[in-house]
């Protein structure tokens, strides 16, 4: 399956545009479009950038990145995790046009990272941490979208951080929303959730995506409540720029200020964006592969090249930096998306909505879109996942839970970092306990101990081996057997040879069997390496 993704550099139109795939990809693209539209606008608003900049990033992420990417289900666009970086960078650099140059340079750095195979770092994220991240994103969606479902939209749509720009946090915002709720928004969101849960159960009706019905209900609800005391305010509705002529459309674009290429601050901002965006992308790609029903494997290096290309084009057109985004991607998976065409169609829909139906789009209440994300969050945070991780043992369950809590109380990258630290602790603990096994035989008063080393004996095993050797009683015959070992770390070898040299002082006779004086790190088969590095 990895080969299928990594080798499909050119479009197989027959495959992607087949009736079987289009039947799934078209409805999924509508759902992703409806989810992505407010997220693009909300992230642009929170970043201190023009609203259209978020839409540019969404359009480029859908059409350009998906076309180049080897992932079939990942959806790219502006990410909530970059909002603080973008906001601070625009202020530091002095203008949005200078910031666009940094976005383009960041894209170039990502392409270089992909070419030098830096994407393989994505293969080292522990499964327990990725599962925890998915569950945490689901809980975050539920907690963050509740205020929007109640009609309180003081925080930007799509925020994922615990501390908000409106000086609230995730939990206090819910409390504030309960005391200031809008009857119209609550009615719309409750009806929307009911439709999302019931509509798919009727197979004949499910040809039309439930989220599309939800949006229609939302628009009708907003119109019915208009004019009264419970009418929805403008800030409770989606707001995209209204284009009335070609000149209006082209005036929405911003051009980079290339004279700032000599400014060293541009390169520092670019490096920051490239690193953070690449990490978020690799995490998202790994998570999407986890929830892919077909279990395809996405080539990580090619993904960095795709993201870098997208960021270069987005910066050139005046758009925000982008990453692969787990919220949009999970909405794509949950809606039945099958190939990358769903992401490409969603980007096309974003473009067409700005060009032809901005006034209709501006009638959509945030409440109905929040309902879509609430259901998406529920599917990501299913109880069965917690049970599954618990049955896998504490070394999997503890990092899983810690990642969830850390992401909820900080943000995505910090939370995953904390989860990684806990996971590494358990990894070290396991490695220290499993470098060898030994057997004790007694012949009269003399003990014979045979220590058989593991296939891979790393530096992490040094402490446990040293403890074992130190505690061997006097007048013992010790055989250290390395016949199974493909690699023994130099530090461990030094410990073993030093022990043999000094053991005679305790009356211990040490025999080494198949233990070399030097080991070379075993190389992977070249074909396997090539496949991994795609």
Automatic annotation (TrEMBL):
InterPro entries, sorted: SLC26A/SulP_dom, SLC26A/SulP_fam
UniProt keyword terms in alphabetical order: Membrane, Transmembrane, Transmembrane helix
Membrane-traversing stretches: 26-45, 52-75, 95-116, 123-143, 177-199, 206-225, 266-283, 304-327, 339-357, 364-385, 397-428
Gene Ontology annotations for the cellular component aspect, listed alphabetically: membrane
Pfam families documented for this protein: Sulfate_transp
Residue intervals of the SLC26A/SulP transporter domain: 22-391
GO biological process: transmembrane transport
Topology in the lipid bilayer: Multi-pass membrane protein
Entry-linked PANTHER family: SULFATE TRANSPORTER (PTHR11814)
Name under which the protein is recorded: SulP family inorganic anion transporter
């Amino acid at each position: 399956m990895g080969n299928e993704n990594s080798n499909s550099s050119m479009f197989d139109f027959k495959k992607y545009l087949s009736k079987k795939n289009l039947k799934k990809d078209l409805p999924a693209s509508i759902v992703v479009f409806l989810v992505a539209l407010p997220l693009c606008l909300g992230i642009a608003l929170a970043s201190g950038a023009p609203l259209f900049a978020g839409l540019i990033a969404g359009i480029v992420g859908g059409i350009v990145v998906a076309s180049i990417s080897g992932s079939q289900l990942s959806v790219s666009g502006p990410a909530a995790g970059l909002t603080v970086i973008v906001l601070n960078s625009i202020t530091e650099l002095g203008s949005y046009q200078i910031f666009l140059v940094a976005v383009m340079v960041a894209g170039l750095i990502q392409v270089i990272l992909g070419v030098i195979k830096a994407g393989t770092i994505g293969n080292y994220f522990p499964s327990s941490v990725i599962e925890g991240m998915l569950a945490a994103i689901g809980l975050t969606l539920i907690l963050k979208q509740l205020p929007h479902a109640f009609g309180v939209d003081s925080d930007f749509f799509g925020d994922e951080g615990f501390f908000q720009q409106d000086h609230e946090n995730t939990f206090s915002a819910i409390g504030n929303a309960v005391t200031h709720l809008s009857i119209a928004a609550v009615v719309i969101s409750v009806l929307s959730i009911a439709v999302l849960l019931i509509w798919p159960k009727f197979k004949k009706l499910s040809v039309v995506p439930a989220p599309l019905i939800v949006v229609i209900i939302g628009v009708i609800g907003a119109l019915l409540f208009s004019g009264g005391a419970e009418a929805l305010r403008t800030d409770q509705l989606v707001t995209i720029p209204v284009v009335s002529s070609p000149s209006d459309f082209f005036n929405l674009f911003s051009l980079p200020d290339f004279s700032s290429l000599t400014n060293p601050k541009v390169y520092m901002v670019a490096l920051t964006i490239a690193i953070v965006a690449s990490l978020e992308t690799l995490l998202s790609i790994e998570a999407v592969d986890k929830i892919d029903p077909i279990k395809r494997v996405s080539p990580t290096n090619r993904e960095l090249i795709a993201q870098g290309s997208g960021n270069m084009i987005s910066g050139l057109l005046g758009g925000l930096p982008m990453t692969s985004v787990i919220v949009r991607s999970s909405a794509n998976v949950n809606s039945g998306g099958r190939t990358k065409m769903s992401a490409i169609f969603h980007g096309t829909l974003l473009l067409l909505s700005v060009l032809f139906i901005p006034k209709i789009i501006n009638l959509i209440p945030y409440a109905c879109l929040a309902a879509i994300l609430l259901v998406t969050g529920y599917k990501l945070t299913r109880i069965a996942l917690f049970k599954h991780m618990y049955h896998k043992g504490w070394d999997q369950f503890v990092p899983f839970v810690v990642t969830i809590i850390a992401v909820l109380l900080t943000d995505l990258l910090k939370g995953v970092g904390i989860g990684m630290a806990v996971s590494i602790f358990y990894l070290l603990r396991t490695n220290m306990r499993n470098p060898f096994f030994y057997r004790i035989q007694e012949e009269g008063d003399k003990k014979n101990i045979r220590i058989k080393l593991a296939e891979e004996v790393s530096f992490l095993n040094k402490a446990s081996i040293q403890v074992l050797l130190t505690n061997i009683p006097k007048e013992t015959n010790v055989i250290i057997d390395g016949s199974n070992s493909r690699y023994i770390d130099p530090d461990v070898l030094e410990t073993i040879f030093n022990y043999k040299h000094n053991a005679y002082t305790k009356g211990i006779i040490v025999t080494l069997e198949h233990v070399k004086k030097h080991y070379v790190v075993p190389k992977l088969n070249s074909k396997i390496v090539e496949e991994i590095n795609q």
